[in-house]
Amino acid sequence: MVIRTLLAEDMHLVRGALVALLAYEEDIEVVAEVERGDRILSAARACRPHVAVIDIGLPGMDGLTAAAELHEKLPECGVLILTGVGTPGLLKKALDVHVRGFMAKDAPPGRLADGIRRVAEGERVIDSELAIAAMRPMEAPLTQRELDVIGAAADGASIGEIAASLYLSEGTVRNYLSKTTAKLGARSRIDAIRIARESGWI
After folding, report:
1. To bridge 37 with a disulfide, which of 8, 58, 125, 202 should be the other Cys (CB 3.0-4.6 Å)?
2. What is the distance in angstroms between the CA of the first residue and the CA of the last residue of the chain?
3. 0.85 exceeded by pTM
């Protein structure tokens, strides 16, 4: 059986490399490629993949939210999440939304192909290195207020909406977001949200 695979990755070079690598596998066919999390379900409905390989940090909708939606609407499609970070919170979230595979983004190509095969068979695949990393508690370097602000921003709230909901001035919200971005060593607010999500803090 050829395993019909959907690939969701927002970085074009990475996605192209993964497609090229999987093309060498005779029993795996990439039948759809998407660059946004909010396009995964519609693409899956159109091509009916056996497995969806989803990067955890996608624009539009994060990978775990997309995985939960996919499990609800197309439970026959197994999900394998690709991530760069293993934390207890993130691994728990993945298991809570019925993700079958949880693998490092820099895993060797052969391991990814094997993971796709095992997920297609209904097995659970958790990268051993990520599992070990997830056993080590990773405390957030952010205050609770900073977590509240970055969490609201992650949900799509505007500066004004965050300020109103948390009873802060818009300037204070901007300061919190700047501090959070700096503390996490992020390139931007979006990158800070990604780091916080991948670490299981929000």
Report:
1. 58
2. 39
3. no
Longest CA pairwise span in the chain (Å): 58
Looking at the predicted structure, is the pLDDT value of residue 90 above 80?
no
Which DSSP state fits 38? Answer: G
Which residues are within 8 A (CB) of 80 and not within 5 positions of it... i.e. 6 or more apart?
51, 52, 53, 54, 99, 100, 101, 102, 103, 115, 116, 119, 125
* CA gap 54, 47 in Å, rounded: 16
Q: What is the pLDDT of residues 57-80, one digit of tens each?
A: 898 998 999 999 999 999 999 999
List pLDDT tens digits, range 14-36. Answer: 899 999 999 999 999 999 999 99
Angle at which helices 144-154 and 159-166 cross, to 10°: 140
For 185-194, the CB contacts below 8 A with 24+ separation are 189/153, 190/59, 192/150, 193/150, 193/153, 193/154, 194/57
Residues ≥6 apart with Cβ < 8 Å to 94: 64, 67, 81, 102
Spatial strand order of the sheet with 51-55 comes to 28-34, 3-8, 51-55, 78-83, 101-104, 125-126
Inter-residue contact 92 to 47 (CB < 8 Å): no
Structure tokens at 56: 């955890």
Tell me the C-alpha distance between 155 and 176, whole Å: 16
